[in-house]
Amino acid sequence: MKTASFLCMEEIVDECYKFMRERIEYEDALPLLFFSRSIDYNKNDEYLMKFIASNFVLISHTPEFLDLTFGDILNFVQRDFLNIDDEKQVFNAVDRWITNQQENKDKWNKYGKTDIGMWLLYHMRCPCLSPSFITETVLKKKWITDSPRCMDVINIGIHKLSEMWKNKLMFRELAKIHLSLSRILRLETVMSAISLSSRSIAPVEFTELWMVKCWTKLSNMLRCRDNSAASCTLNGKLYDDHSWDGECYDPATNEWTRISSMIKPSCNSEAAALNGSIYLVGGKERGTPTANLQRYTPATNKWIGRMQ
Length: 308
Prior knowledge:
The protein is α+β, with helices and mostly antiparallel strands. Among the domains are: 86-209, no CATH class; 230-306, Thrombin, subunit H (Beta Barrel). The protein is 44% helix and 15% strand. It has a four-stranded antiparallel β-sheet with strand order 1-2-3-4, covered by helices on one side. Mean pLDDT is 75; it is low at 1-7, 168-178 and 186-214.
């Protein structure tokens, strides 16, 4: 393969890697990744990174894992779809990697003043670690306790999580969240705009705000819809409007119900919730753009509107 690469016989290299990808085992992933990089063959990189993410726990215990770069480790820590049972496995993998870097002066010195531990903790899902694990394991790691920045990240993560508990976001819902400290900090202002007075959050809002670890199959709509439908949430329910009719999804019952028909049919409209009503703006009628404005009030199940 090196000869083919040297002679720029790209098609042969492609076929060789295709052959290996079809037969790859977890022990082969990192050696193949390193070899690909040694001959500047970048086509294989993303495929192998995804394969490693899918077999992260097994691969993180291989000797080659300790030879990954800081950029590679950060890439895995940030990934939303990392095949793990819990965040402890990620922390333990990072701990093994950092400990190995510290034991090898040549590896450690190249980072200079960069606090790599802080950056990895920052992007890790620290709030998903249990309080007992933080106390018994995390806070006993020298690379964390010796770094004020690492300690700041841990303390901020614990503080932010306690704030969300005070806002009555149930722990059983939190357990479904794959949440990093960086997401908490970025979304703090968004969270303040959402009412958390109830014990649940509407599914669409929940999915957009937080990266959920898994998908759950819900009830199908009453009618098939294409991408010209308009949707929005109001009072913890999802409303979808298309053409003449619309539907309402209630996550409490996992059921769709039909709502009253619009005054005028509309496709490709924009929907927004305001003051207890849903507004349907613009759209097309028989292919022609309109300036229609229609308002639906769930309390009365009626539409009113100003037509073009």
